[in-house]
């Protein structure tokens, strides 16, 4: 994305009348990056090295209203987001 990254666009998307459920697909799996995505209302986060099947499963989960975040980050995010 030439002018903004996904996390900068996310707050604008969430303000839309029909806000989408967003799944972030990133090259990185840093706790801080995942935290920022969750704080900005992303419903999911996964890395680009995920299998096609995992990506499809994540899209379906997020579309159904579920969260899809790395297991090892869920407790940390829960503590940080309150």
Tell me about this structure:
This protein is mainly alpha-helical and about 80 residues long. The termini are far apart. It contains four helices and two strands; from the N terminus they run αβαβαα. It has one domain (about 5-80): Rossmann fold. The model has no long low-confidence stretch (mean pLDDT about 85). It has a two-stranded parallel sheet with strand order 1-2. The longest helix has 12 residues, at about 50-65. Helix 2 (about 30-40) links the parallel strand 1 and strand 2. It has helices at about 5-15, 30-40, 50-65, 70-80; strands at about 25, 45. Helix 2 packs across helix 4. About 15% of the residues are buried.
Which descriptors would you attach to this protein?
82 residues; mainly alpha; Rossmann fold; two-stranded parallel ribbon; 4 helices; 2 strands; globular
Strand-helix topology:
Elements: H1 6-14, E1 23-26, H2 31-39, E2 44-47, H3 52-63, H4 71-81
Parallel strand pairs: 1-2
Helix pairs in contact: 2-4
> What structural class do helix, strand and pairing data support?
mainly alpha
Taken in chain order, the helices and strands follow as HEHEHH
Count of all domains: 1
Number of extended strands: 2
Shape: globular
Question: From the 3D coordinates, which CATH architecture would you assign?
Answer: 3-Layer(aba) Sandwich
Determine the CATH superfamily.
Answer: Response regulator
Summarize the structure.
The chain has helices spanning 6-14, 31-39, 52-63, 71-81; strands at 23-26, 44-47. It has 82 residues and is mainly alpha-helical.
């Amino acid at each position: 994305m030439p002018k903004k990254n996904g996390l900068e666009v996310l707050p604008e998307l969430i303000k839309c009348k029909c806000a989408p459920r967003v799944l972030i697909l990133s090259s990185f799996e840093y706790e801080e990056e995942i935290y920022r995505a969750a704080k900005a209302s992303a419903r999911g986060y996964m890395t680009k090295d995920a299998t096609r099947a995992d990506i499809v499963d994540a899209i379906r989960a997020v579309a159904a209203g579920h969260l899809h975040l790395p297991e090892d980050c869920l407790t940390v995010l829960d503590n940080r987001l309150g």
